[in-house]
Amino acid sequence: MGVYPLDALIPSENKLANNFDCGRITVHNAYETLKDLDILHTIKGSGFYVKTMIDSYINQTFANLYPISTNATVNTKEINYSYCDILFKHATSFSLLIRNKTIARSCFLSTIPIDVSNFDPKNINISKLIIMSGNDDFFNVKTTISYDLFKTFEGLLSFDKFKINSPLIVNYLYNSNNELCLIIITQINDHYFKYTSASKLI
């Protein structure tokens, strides 16, 4: 099927079914699954397109907080952190704020740098920044939520001095060769949980 950039029109259900010699309903179900994951969207009378905003696929919790944040900041840091025999050399931290108080932040550990020169705090599209930086081969995402993970990543998370008691939400992103290529560590401010139901976050 190939690789399709953001905003790209992908083949119709009939065309893809013919290419792979399978039923149209099989392709339809696959496309609907990708829609549910916020990877595709439809334009009536036109077809299926790759969404420009696929943050909910990469990091659902953080993406759900975008609409209520009033500002965002970004920090980068060079690191040497080994995890699962992979050396991560770059850390990029995105923080969401409401009236200058941090409500959440995500720390991205990657093997190649994430270009934040086009970061727009009023229109965040973290997934697009990641993809445009060359981290574009995401095949699988595994998510873990745990208090225990804080000890594992505490040293890395301290560089923007945000300490909280809520559990970490960690996304492990694997490429098509099933190799770990990106780790996203998200923290939600414990104070924020007191005023917002968990159903709005996850």
Automatic annotation (TrEMBL):
Boundaries of every HTH gntR-type domain copy: 1-53
Gene Ontology MF annotations: DNA binding; DNA-binding transcription factor activity
Lineage: superkingdom: Bacteria
Keyword vocabulary terms for this entry: DNA-binding, Transcription, Transcription regulation
SUPFAM superfamilies with a match to the protein in the record: Winged helix' DNA-binding domain (SSF46785)
Positions in coiled-coil regions: none
InterPro entries: Tscrpt_reg_HTH_GntR, WH-like_DNA-bd_sf, WH_DNA-bd_sf
Protein name from the UniProt record: HTH gntR-type domain-containing protein
Species assigned in the record: Ureaplasma diversum
